Amino acid sequence: LFDLFLTTPDAILFGEDVADFSGKMKLDIEEQKKLKGKGGVFLVSQGLQRAFGTDRVFNTPLDEAGILSLGMGNCYQGRIALPEIQFLDYMSPAYQQLKDRICTVHQRSKGQEPGNVVIRCSYGGYKQGAGSFWHSEANLGTFMNIPALHVVIPSNAEDAVGLFRTAVASNDPVLFLEAVALYNRREWDGVNIERPYPQLDYMIPFGQAKVYNEANRDLAIISYGITLPMCLRAAQLLEEKGIHARVIDLRTLKPLDEEAIRKSAMDCARVLIVSEDRFPGGVGPTISATITSSDAFGYLDAPIGMITALDARVAYGPDGDRACLPQMEQIVAEAQKTMAY
């Protein structure tokens, strides 16, 4: 964000609590010096308003439909609009603005109007029960179904930087999803997820998955976002049991890297899909259909394994997370089941 704001004066960021200060405090520079400032509920934009001013970084009312409408209006005026929806759960009030306004502008204008609104949004569970009903949503299949919308979901900070730069440069609407449980994490159950900050020209094309352990051919585990580190840990545990699994990090759900998905199915002949979304209308069945509707289907030696969230809202407490969301033990068990078929 700082790199972008330094590069162009046209970038603006706004949303609920994204600024360091609001109200009278945003004008009281001397009083501000005594305080850290907020900068987002997860402190992602902390310091941005101090550095670039209240006209470029500011808070909005609790009005998600208004936030996205403001994003579209600023986009029409030539700015790089970066609205933030605090949690994916609260995208619902803004759904019509996203689906019927922002994501149709190219088609309605025959490509004459820009649509480069990059919507940053936290998502997902695994918050030791703190998220529950209203702060744990991961129903990404809903947004894959919207024409013209890119759905981007990094699993580590380096990918987040490369994908964010591509999002800003894409001239298209982008839903940029940040896993809450990965904020400020350097490892996940022993798997190192800390990454170096990339060079300024580092960008990751949309629709380009990252493949870990590509030489492995026993099993392909396909995932994204928060469940990706779990899959990497599961692959380590499976290795100890003599099962050599490759792991595919999709990085973007729309566009999907269909070639990487099909190739892994053909190489490994056994596939396990791990998704924090629920099964009905979810990400997992879409990935599965990419395989079963292609020539890759004929290479399979077992039914496609799939682990998804329970068809329920995430329940309260750590037990609620464990009951409702994919767990590493499930990944290992399902992998062994797929291998035994």
How would you describe this structure to a colleague?
It contains 13 helices and 14 strands. The protein is an alpha/beta fold. The protein folds into 2 domains: 2-192, Rossmann fold, CATH 3.40.50; 210-340, Rossmann fold, CATH 3.40.50.920. It has a 7-stranded mixed sheet with strand order 2-1-3-4-6-5-12, sandwiched between helices. Strands 9-11-10-13-14 form a 5-stranded mixed sheet, sandwiched between helices. A two-stranded antiparallel ribbon has the order 7-8. The model has no long low-confidence stretch (mean pLDDT 93).
CATH superfamily of the largest domain: Thiamin diphosphate (ThDP)-binding fold, Pyr/PP domains
Poorly predicted residue ranges: none
Mean pLDDT: 93
The DSSP helix count reads: 13
Q: What's the end-to-end separation, in Å?
A: 48 Å
What's the number of structural domains? 2
Strand adjacency order, main sheet: 2-1-3-4-6-5-12
Biggest pleated sheet: 7 strands, mixed
Q: How would the global form be characterised?
A: globular
Query: Could you say what the CATH architecture of the largest domain is?
Result: 3-Layer(aba) Sandwich
Please count the beta strands (DSSP E, at least 2 residues each).
Answer: 14
Main CATH class of the largest domain: Alpha Beta
**Radius of gyration, CA atoms, in whole angstroms:** 21 Å
H-E string: HEHHEHEHHEHEHEEEEEHEEHEHEHH
Quickly give the structural class: alpha/beta
SS strand fraction: 15-25%
Looking at CATH, which topology of the largest domain would you report? Answer: Rossmann fold
Helix content: 25-40%
